[in-house]
Design a protein that fits this description.
The protein is globular, with a radius of gyration of 27 Å. It has 21 helices and eleven strands. A six-stranded parallel beta sheet has the order 8-7-6-9-10-11, with helices on both faces. With 475 residues, the protein is α/β, with parallel strands linked by helices. The chain has helices at 3-22, 26-38, 43-55, 59-72, 77-89, 93-106, 111-123, 127-140, 145-157, 161-174, 179-191, 195-202, 205-208, 238-244, 246-251, 267-271, 297-300, 345-348, 390-398, 409-416, 459-470, and strands spanning 218-219, 229-233, 257-262, 278-281, 290-293, 330-335, 363-367, 381-384, 402-405, 421-425, 447-451. 47% of the residues lie in helices and 11% in strands. The mean pLDDT is 93.
Length: 475
């Protein structure tokens, strides 16, 4: 067989592998490429294998294969892009930046490569470099909604909220039904205390987390509820449940009945609230006249915490389950790690080692962090308390003098119970911690808030916490 015929045959096999890849027939594509390589090295075959390994989350193999492609043909920008994507997938962002820059050096007119580069910079919190890359993306692709979305996210991290809002609005201008842009815009509004616009845009979360059931009646949008039954839908987050449930007290003034969906862990606590008629699981749909997702109560009621008198505590536990303090020390509940399923876990959690020199002999520190075991319990904690439901956790919290916590369910329960709480927040926190309130919270009057000054640096937070605790004594 002549060289030309052999090359044509190899190309036909490459095309076959590409077709298999396009149909998600990964085994067939892989076998085809391996047969090609058996007859001699082939850059495209290695590249296809690399793409398959990314899909299979075998990132080291992906990197190995695409590096072979680059060794054969260093001038193909696509190979460098795939290398960068493989490094990004394994969270080696420094290496991904080098790869994406190599692709751009070969061809700087591919918008998506600039976008990938910007995202790697964003992951490393190199925000100015990320902004530059995203603007390069939009110059090459003016309607690139992904670049505008991440520009909004980066500007928010830099506390440039006006520019963040403009970027999200640009997304919506390009794609009016882009739910993620609307939701991010709403969260930004809420973070700066614009509740009217914030709650309106927050409704777009429902396009992302769709609630649907043929067992639902009419949605409540403010109709008279006298002698009616309202079903409040669970949205899957106990922190939001405790935060938003205060609004149900407002509705009970209309002599209606309210059934609240919630998690199994929350049911004992919700049942204990006299102003809630029924606590049910998220799969239960009792007879009702109206329904509303719990996060939509704020929008329907046009609730602005600046303009409402809030009652604390607004949840209750059985008084006979609250015991007297059994120590002369200050009893402190501590949480240093947020939910590991949260996108903000790394930004909001604090290394437990940073608390080593914070407490003294006057403090009895009880760890409420659910991820801690007896083996990993820090030496400054006297014990670790586990709990099976929110009622038990609320009783534990009610028996403490002070809660020190990151953004966590414990914070919401402590605030709802009106327990003194020190909340430690990252530089740009979750939407509910209004930036207009530097040291306090508009939502919970028992809170003292300590915020980071620099992203990722908890040093000043620890210093302020130590100062606050230094003279604290029981009674």
């Amino acid at each position: 067989m002549c060289i030309r015929d052999r090359d044509n045959q190899v190309q036909q096999e490459i095309n076959k592998a590409i077709n298999f890849l396009g149909q998600n027939k990964f085994l067939e594509a892989e076998n085809t490429c391996l047969k090609i390589i058996d007859t001699g090295d082939n850059a495209d075959a290695y590249h296809i294998l690399s793409s398959i390994k990314i899909y299979q989350q075998e990132f080291e193999d992906s990197i190995k294969y695409v590096k072979k492609s680059i060794a054969i043909n260093d001038g193909n920008p696509g190979y460098h892009v795939t290398l960068g994507c493989a490094y990004s997938a394994k969270e080696d962002y420094e290496s991904s930046i080098i790869a994406f820059k190599s692709a751009i050096k070969i061809n700087n007119k591919i918008a998506q490569v600039h976008f990938y580069l910007g995202e790697s910079y964003r992951k490393l919190k190199k925000y100015n470099d990320a902004i530059s890359s995203f603007y390069n993306t939009t110059e090459l692709s003016p309607d690139h909604v992904g670049a505008y979305l991440l520009l909004g996210v980066v500007y928010q991290e830099k506390k440039q909220f006006d520019l963040s809002i403009k970027a999200f609005q640009k997304c919506i201008e390009i794609m009016p039904d882009y739910a993620e842009a609307h939701l991010n815009l709403g969260l930004c509004y809420l973070l700066i205390g614009d509740y009217e616009n914030g709650w309106r845009e927050y409704e777009w979360r429902r396009k992302i987390i769709k609630e649907s059931s043929d067992k639902l009646s009419r949605e409540w949008s403010g109709q008279n509820l006298e002698n009616k039954t309202l079903l409040v839908l669970d949205e899957g987050a106990d922190g939001n449940l405790i935060h938003f449930i205060r609004l149900i007290r407002e509705l009970k003034k209309e002599s209606c009945k309210v059934a609240v969906q919630c998690s199994e862990e929350a049911i004992p606590l919700i049942k204990n609230q006299k102003w809630i008629d029924k606590a049910i699981t998220a799969d239960d749909f009792p007879e009702h006249d109206f329904y509303i997702p719990i996060g939509s109560l704020m929008n329907v009621l046009k609730y602005n915490p600046n303009h409402h008198d809030q009652i604390f505590p607004y949840i209750e536990v059985d008084a006979d389950k609250i015991s007297k303090k059994d120590t002369d020390q200050v009893n402190i509940g501590l949480v240093f790690e947020t939910d590991r399923n949260s996108n903000a876990h790394d930004d909001e959690s604090i290394d437990p080692g940073l608390f080593e020199n914070i407490f003294n002999q006057e403090h009895n520190v009880i760890c409420l962090d659910k991820y801690v075991t007896n083996e990993t319990l820090p030496n400054y904690c006297s014990k670790h308390i586990t709990y099976s439901n929110l009622q038990d956790l609320s009783i534990v919290i009610s028996n403490l003098d002070l809660i020190i916590t990151v953004d966590h369910l414990v914070a919401h329960l402590a605030g709802a119970l009106n327990i003194d709480t020190i909340l430690m927040l990252p530089c740009v926190p979750n939407w509910r911690w209004d930036m207009n309130f530097r040291d306090t919270s508009i939502w919970y009057k028992s809170f003292k808030v300590i915020r980071q000054q620099t992203p990722g640096d908890w040093t000043l937070v620890m210093s302020k916490l130590s100062d606050h605790l230094s003279g604290l004594k029981n009674g």
